[in-house]
Every structure is written in C-alpha cells, then in structure tokens.
Design a protein that fits this description.
Pathway: Amino-acid biosynthesis; L-proline biosynthesis; L-glutamate 5-semialdehyde from L-glutamate: step 1/2. Helix content is 42%, strand content 15%. By secondary structure, the protein is of the alpha/beta class. The protein folds into 2 domains: 272 residues, Acetylglutamate kinase-like (Carbamate kinase), CATH 3.40.1160; 56 residues, PUA domain (Archaeosine Trna-guanine Transglycosylase, Chain: A, domain 4, Roll), CATH 2.30.130. It starts with a helix and ends with a strand. The mean pLDDT is 88. It binds adenosine-5'-diphosphate (ADP) and the ligand N[C@@H](CCC(=O)OP(=O)(O)O)C(=O)O. The ligand N[C@@H](CCC(=O)OP(=O)(O)O)C(=O)O binds next to helix 4, strand 6 and helix 8.
C-alpha cells in the first residue's frame, strides 16, 4: 500500500478539480452569517483558482442568513423555527448568501454560478445528467459553481439534511479529485472531543470502510446537521468514488491555503483503491426507501417477476412471451452494500 503521506502530497500537488464544502458551524456565529469568514474563504478559493485548479463550493448558511434577516425585521407573532419556517428562512437567506459570495468573488475577479440541488436530482438519471452538463460547462468557462441544497422545495424524505451528504454526491457529478471539508473541529478525533477531551486527532484514516463511525462520533453530533458523523459518511462515499477527503478546520485563518500547501493539519482520508464506476454510483443513490442491502436496475417489472418466481427458465417465455433477459438484475447494473 502506498504511504499515505506520499499519497497526500501527490494528490495536493496534482489535484485539478477540488470540491470545497463549508458548513454552518464555520460560516455562522450567534449573529448569523459571518462575513469575515465568507471573505477569507473566497480569497483562498480564488487563489486556488488562480493556480489553475477548478473549484466547486458546496456551502451551507442559507437558513442562518434568512433567520438573521427575519430577526432584524420579525414577522409579528409568527414561528420562525418550525420546518416550513426553516424552509422559508432558507429561501430568504439563499439570495443573501449568494449575494455575499458573488460580491466577494467579484472582488477577486471571479464569476460565480448558483446551483440548488435536492436528492430528487440524483435519483432521476435525466436530472443527474442535466446537472452534470451544466456543471461541466460552468467549469469549462472557469466559473466557480456554488451549490447548496434547495431547502425550500426539499421535502423531509427527499432532503439531504446536511450538506456533507450533498457534497459527496456532487463529487460524482463533477469528477472531482479532492474533497476538502471545512469543519469547526481541527480534524477527526478518536472520539468526540467535546465528550472526551483527551481524544487525539487522527492524521489519517486509511480504511474508512472499516471505521465505526457511530462509536467515534457518538451518533449525530448536532441538531439539524450531522456534525462529524455526516462528514465521515460523506468521506466514505468519496472513498468509494476513489476521491480522498481532507477534513480540516475552517475556523483557522488561511486554513484552506495551508492545508492545500501540505501542512500537517486536519485528517486525510484515503480513497478506496477501486473506484465505483459513475453509473453504479448513481444506482447506489437511486433508491432510498426501506432497508437496502444493495441496489440494481431490474430487467423485469414487479408484476412479471411475481409470475415467474420459482419457475424454470424454460417456462418463462411461455409466461411472458419472447425476448427475455437471462437475469433479473445483471451484476453490471448492481451494487451491494452502498454507503447509504
Ligand atoms: N470523532 C470526532 N472528531 C471530531 N469532531 C467530532 C467527533 N465526534 C463529534 N464531533 C463533533 O462534530 C462537530 C464538527 O462538525 P461541524 O463542523 O460543527 O458541523 P457542520 O459542518 O455540520 O456545521 C464538532 O463540534 C465536534 O464536537
Ligand atoms: N442547506 C442548509 C444547511 C444544511 C446543513 O445543516 O448543513 P451543514 O451545516 O453543512 O451540516 C443551509 O444552507 O442553511
């Protein structure tokens, strides 16, 4: 196995397309969106971009920015914290968030584009491909795509709920070669540092597939977003796509620049040696219902399957007519144990 430090150095030096994700805990403070953080982050992303790297930004902060606006001018006697209120706050905040990014990037001479996605967009092959085409075109034009979940239309069962999951899905859309996840912690620790202050930072996670994420983060760590738990699940998906993840503090000044320059900070998560082909990755996220042990595209409709269950292959043509497939789900169209 390649030494992880050497692997990290090689990826950092050669990454052409970097996806940077920044969460609410980094971007916001008790007053809402922290513009100093937004400006520092855009400066650093612009520098990477100037060096020729494509950068895709997945950002949270719409709900916080919306609530900030609402608190400045509250709707008399109305709830601003329930789910519909959260969705409405996101729609108020998203345009403000985007405005701040747009202005900050413009000061660095960069053009931005907003893309709002929901889980639906990854479940429909057509929408998945449309989103991919748009992103590819933007990147060819050297525009910086800024992505968030489309909170105001996402219904509970279709919501990502946290942008770590969204970011990991976008990796597959844009064929990124590095995922940088900016967090409020200084990296991944052996255990939740707020519960166990003696826990040490992990410099590298070599085999994320074998990591007990539940135990390490003690379940989900924050309400409404996943904290480190969802970052590790996102890193697991990234690893399946053969994309390494760097989880690093977004609170520290110049953290992104320093991390990209190879300083010893945060946690490096090694990718799996064998990437899932992108079509299979899409399959993995196509069906989210029930207890999933694997996913695949079937050659037979459910009612036909009921008719032929338990029958000999030779009798199938008699039941369903000619032109049949020899298998219900071909192994090329099947993925077992996706990191759902
Ligand atoms: N093993 C762990 N290592 C590091 N942080 C952890 C761990 N388990 C739980 N956490 C918590 O996860 C949080 C990091 O996520 P955060 O950046 O706050 O989330 P978000 O990006 O969703 O807003 C930290 O507050 C930290 O206390
Ligand atoms: N899409 C929402 C944030 C979702 C969320 O909680 O994200 P994160 O803080 O990154 O885990 C927003 O823009 O406010």
């Amino acid at each position: 196995m390649q030494d992880w430090r050497e692997h990290k150095r090689t990826v950092l030096e050669n990454a052409k397309r970097v996806l940077v994700k920044v969460g609410s805990a980094v971007l916001t403070d008790e007053h809402g969106l922290n513009l100093r953080v937004v400006n520092r982050l855009t400066d650093q992303i612009a520098s990477l971009h100037d060096r020729g790297q494509d950068v895709i930004l997945v950002t949270s902060g719409a709900v916080a920015a919306g609530r900030q606006a609402l608190l400045a001018c509250p709707p008399c006697g109305k709830d601003i914290f329930g789910l519909p209120a959260k969705q409405a706050a996101a729609s108020i905040g998203q345009s403000r968030l985007m405005h701040e990014y747009d202005e900050a990037f413009a000061r660095c001479g960069k053009t931005t584009a907003q893309i709002l996605l929901t889980r639906d967009d990854f479940q429909s092959r057509q929408r998945f491909l449309n989103a991919r085409n748009t992103l590819t075109t933007l990147l060819e034009w050297r525009v910086i795509p800024i992505i968030n979940e489309n909170d105001s239309v996402a219904v509970a069962e279709l919501a990502f709920g946290d942008n770590d999951a969204l970011a990991s899905m976008v990796l597959g859309l844009v064929d990124a070669d590095l995922f940088v996840n900016l967090t409020s912690a200084t990296g991944v620790f052996e255990a939740n540092p707020s519960e166990n202050p003696k826990a040490c930072r992990l410099e590298c996670i070599q085999e994320i597939a074998h990591l007990d994420v539940e135990a390490m983060c003690h379940g989900k760590t924050t309400v409404g977003s996943g904290g480190m738990y969802s970052k590790l699940l996102a890193a697991k998906r990234a690893a399946q796509l053969a994309v390494p993840t760097l989880i690093v503090s977004g609170k520290e000044r110049y953290a992104l620049e320093k991390a990209m320059a190879g300083e010893d900070m945060g946690t490096w998560i090694m990718p799996e040696a064998q990437a899932i082909p992108s079509r299979k990755f899409w399959l993995a996220y196509h069906d989210w219902q029930g207890q999933t042990i694997g996913v695949g595209v079937t050659n037979y409709a459910a009612q036909d399957l009921k008719k032929i269950m338990g029958r000999r292959t030779g009798s199938i043509e008699e039941l369903l007519g000619p032109g049949l497939y020899p298998e219900v789900v071909h192994r090329d169209n099947m993925l077992l144990d996706p990191a759902l």
